[in-house]
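S.,

Sequence below, as promised.
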Amino acid sequence: MEIEEHVMLFITFIAPVFIASIILYLIRALRGPTIPDMVIAVDAISFDIAVFLAVLAVYFKSPILISCVIVLMLWAYALDIYVAKYLESKDMGG
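The prediction came back faster than expected:
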């Protein structure tokens, strides 16, 4: 069995789990009682999408998707820093 077959089998069984988790995280992001809950939900969504894109990059043999994963993770990190700064000082911006 080649790597493409293993990855396709993985995608077949794990895709519904990713979709269900993204829906649950989306509910938490929209209805979260506090700002940190919402930020954690958005982080979890971005991590799930990044892992799924990395698996798709292996399957399609497309290195451009890996750069998309890196950009997505940098965006999630910047969001965390920005929200932490806001929660620390209650001041948005510079």
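Residues 3-89 form one domain.

Coffee later?
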